[in-house]
Amino acid sequence: METGLKGKIALVTGSGSGIGKAIALGLAREGVDIAVNDVNQENAENAASEIRETGSHAMVVLASVADEAEVNRMVDQVVAEWGGIDILVNNAGVTNQLLIEDTEKESFSDAALFIGADVVGRGENRELGSLLMLRFLHELGGRRLKPRTIIFMNSGVKLVTEDSMALGELKQLENQGVEILVCGTCLSRLQLADKVAVGQVSNMSDITHILLKANKVISI
User: Fold this and answer.
1) Residue 191 forms beta bridges with which residues?
2) Would you say 169 and 137 are in contact if contact means Cβ atoms under 8 Å apart?
3) Using an 8 Å Cβ cutoff, are 98 and 177 in contact?
4) Side by side, which strands form the sheet with 9-12?
5) Closest by Cα among 41, 80, 95, 37 to 61
6) Cα angle at 211 between 124 and 194, to 5 degrees?
7) How far apart are CA 56 and CA 135, in angstroms?
8) pLDDT at residue 85, as a whole number
9) What is the mean pLDDT of residues 53-75?
10) CA-CA distance, 195 to 217, in Å (whole number)?
């Protein structure tokens, strides 16, 4: 399927490893040339090599997104060498990691987040949907304001299992004080009841009560 991305130039921050690297490689497979940003040169160089293996071009730009001067230099370098930037992926971020006992009450909203699938959206590209879900949960962990409860139902329960790519992000959210509830019926139907690695198995009665009590319900 033609995506119209071939020949575009993307700057992906934090793309030396993890989510950023996965995004960069996904774009590279669509013919996008990638400016690989990271603070670790070895990681960045390795990622650039993998990108070149897809047939796309890659360049390494070392910079910390926490430093405005370095960010400006990074952008200037890409524009000077490649003539511009068509796509910017702000994957890297700066977060304030807190233990639950050090987290202020105001850090939590009265919202409930409802996740009913293991991907974002209903498009045909499940790989993209998985990356978007992973990126969303990663971003949520870095936000000061968080939902009080995240509820996983239907295929969304796959995200809390031991094989989930999002397990690290969800454990971080739980450590930050976010309540994670998982549909027990869904786990049983999908034969995943013995695979749960984060959160609390719940039932429809409790889940319904929480959704009705919440000031806002956000569905993903």
Assistant:
1) none
2) yes
3) no
4) 58-62, 33-38, 9-12, 87-89
5) 37
6) 65
7) 23
8) 95
9) 93
10) 27
Q: How far is CA 25 from CA 12, 85, 107, 179, 187, in A?
A: 10, 17, 34, 33, 32
* Domains of the chain (ranges, CATH numbers): 9-89 (3.40.50.720), 100-219 (3.40.1260.10)
Q: Which position has the token pair 């409790």?
A: 206
Q: What pLDDT, on the 0 to 100 scale, is given for residue 90?
A: 86
Specify the length of the chain in residues: 220
Q: Which two tokens stand for residue 5?
A: 């991305």
Report CA 33 to chain centroid distance, whole Å.
22
At 164, list the tokens: 């989930």
Distance (Å, whole) CA 68 – CA 119: 33
Per-residue pLDDT of 91-149, as tens digits, reads 876 554 445 444 444 445 788 999 999 998 876 788 888 999 999 999 888 888 889 99
